[in-house]
Design brief:
385 residues, 7-stranded mixed β-sheet, binds pyridoxal-5'-phosphate, 14 helices, 43% helix
Amino acid sequence: VDELLLIPGPTPVPVSVRQAQAGPMMNHRSEPFAQILREVLGGLRWLCATRQPVLPYASSGTGALEAAVTNVLSPGDRVLALSCGAFGDRFARIARSYGAEVTKIDVEWGKAIPPDLVAHALEQDEYRALLVTHNETSTGVQNDLTAIAAARGNHPALLLADAVSSLAAIPLEMDAWGLDVVATASQKALRCPPGVAFVAASERAWAAHREARMPRYYWDFTITRDALEQSLAQTPFTPPVSIFYALQEGLRLIRNEGLQEGLARHRMLGRATRAGIAAMGLRSVADEPCASWAVTAVWLPDGVSAGQIVCPMRDQHGIALAGGQGQLEGKVFRIGHLGSVYPADILRCLEALERVLRSLGLTVPEEAGVRAAQQLFDEEAAGVA
Ligand SMILES: Cc1ncc(COP(=O)(O)O)c(C=O)c1O
């Protein structure tokens, strides 16, 4: 029996995606591969809701963040990094590593970035860019990107969004919201193995790219776009061909479910997970209004270590959960509910969690978590939630 993978990425890869990935290797500079590439990148444009090209890179999500930064900025540029967790911190570090003058605003972990803070901070300096993590995977908080983009108003700062754990799990509309760079990766809500990252840039970001002098070669937008625009569409460097087979199928599954339906499923899974843990006496790190649709960080009960939950969940129940990161290490455990995750998976997780909590000597009302989550699923099915 496969382990039930409820870490916040990589996420479970459906059987049909795995089968697609097992296809024979092909020439990556051939018409059949060009067709796959066009279909996958077209799918990504649809998911990002953008008219701009989407550029693929053989890398993990962090590569896409590095591509975002290095392609539109120059050393010495003033950058405003808004961080409410480990991935916000990472985005800031990348910009600093390449010589940007970064001002980082730290929002308390577990809280969302207040949009009015953005408006106020932008007035203080001539920032060239604003770095925002859409879904902060380390805390289970989703930021209101629409409101943050609106708070930027007419300020010329480019808005660079880390959508690694949000795209296809949480609504995102790049063009309509005025996002300038969106970065994501294959192993989260796209339900594919790790290996491909994607970046899309607005017209303003492309204009900035032409002036941007941060060092880059592999990540260079122009090199990648030029290769894609050849009559035989291709990537400049050897792509992870098999992951593209997987992406083609993963995107078909997303289309078949319907994007809105898939987003609604993620919202429901988040609500059910939080209802379930609350009924067992546990607390979500994120406040309800900003609680993520993709991942839930749960405070560890007093005197309990992350390993005391994560290890028996894995060894006795076959369910993979994650511990905490950064300043939340040793304080939380995390349940991923993004990609190919369904109500039955959450119910199985809550049932196992109840047993683990009991075995640790905690008092948990019988079936409380499962019942609370099931009630939420029933209400959603009846259309009352
Ligand atoms: C919000 C966010 N940003 C960036 C990353 C980094 O992605 P990767 O580990 O693929 O480099 C992750 C991965 O968990 C993430 O959740």
